[in-house]
Design goal:
By secondary structure, the protein is α/β, with parallel strands linked by helices. The chain has a single domain (44-159), classed as Immunoglobulin-like. It is built from two helices and eight strands; from the N terminus they run ααββββββββ. The chain has helices at residues 4-26, 41-50, and strands at 69-72, 86-89, 92-100, 109-110, 116-117, 125-133, 137-142, 154-159. The chain has a five-stranded mixed beta sheet, with no helix packed on it. It has a three-stranded mixed beta sheet with strand order 1-3-6, with no helix packed on it. It is rod-shaped, with a radius of gyration of 26 Å. The model is unreliable at 27-62 (pLDDT under 50).
Length: 160
C-alpha cells in the first residue's frame, strides 16, 4: 500500500505525463498548408469567388445575332457565392442556369433590363432565368434570398 508521500508522488507524476502528452498533441502538424489554422473554408470560398471567370462557364461558339445562349453559373461548394462570377455573352436571348448542391437555399436573379427571378433551390436543385438583352453593357446577376446579395453573392453578365 502506498504511503501518503508515495501517493502524492504518483499523482504528480501522472499529471506531468498527461500534461506532456496533451502538449505534444497540441504542437503537432495538422498537415494543412494554410498558415492561419482556420481550415480551407475561407480559401476555397475566396478561390471560387475571385478566380472563377467565363473560362468556367460553358460558352457558345460564336452565336448568330439574337441566337439563344446558355451558361452554367453554379453555386460555389461553400458559402454565399457563385462559382462563376463573370459571363460574357452576345446580345440576344441568354439563359443562366445555377445548380445548387448546398443545403443552404439559393437562386439566380437579374434586375435589368427586366427583372427575372429563378426558383429558390437547394440540395442539387437548379434555378434558371432566361432574359433577352439587346443592348451591350454590364448587368448584375445575384441570389435573391434575403441577405445573400448583400453578403456578396453576385456576378457580372457582360453583353458585347
Amino acid at each position: 500500500m502506498l504511503n501518503r508521500f508515495g501517493f502524492r508522488t504518483l499523482l504528480l507524476l501522472m499529471l506531468v505525463v498527461l500534461s506532456l502528452g496533451l502538449l505534444a498533441a497540441g504542437c503537432g502538424d495538422d498537415d494543412d498548408d494554410d498558415s492561419n489554422g482556420s481550415g480551407d473554408t475561407t480559401e476555397a470560398t475566396t478561390d471560387a469567388t475571385t478566380d472563377a471567370t467565363t473560362d468556367d462557364a460553358e460558352e457558345p461558339d460564336e452565336p448568330a445575332d439574337g441566337a439563344a445562349q446558355s451558361f452554367d453559373v453554379p453555386v460555389a461548394a461553400e458559402g454565399l457565392a457563385f462559382a462563376v462570377t463573370e459571363v460574357t455573352a452576345s446580345p440576344g436571348t441568354i439563359t443562366l442556369t445555377s445548380v445548387n448542391d448546398q443545403a443552404v437555399p439559393h437562386n439566380i436573379a437579374i434586375d435589368e433590363p427586366t427583372q427575372q427571378i429563378g426558383e429558390i433551390v437547394q440540395d442539387g436543385g437548379t434555378s434558371t432565368i432566361t432574359i433577352t438583352i439587346d443592348e451591350p453593357g454590364e448587368y448584375e446577376f445575384y441570389c435573391s434570398v434575403p441577405g445573400h446579395r448583400e453578403a456578396g453573392m453576385v456576378g457580372k453578365l457582360i453583353v458585347q
